[in-house]
Amino acid sequence: MVRDTVLYVSITANTAIAAIYQQQNQDPRILLAIPFVSTLLFWIYATNDSMITQIRRYIVTNIVQKLSGDDENNANGLFGWEYLRRRRTFVRLISKIIRLLAVWSTFSGASIVALAATAPNMQDLPHDLPWLVAAAFTALPYVFGLWLLDL
Question: Are 78 and 50 in contact (CB under 8 A)?
Answer without folding.
Answer: no
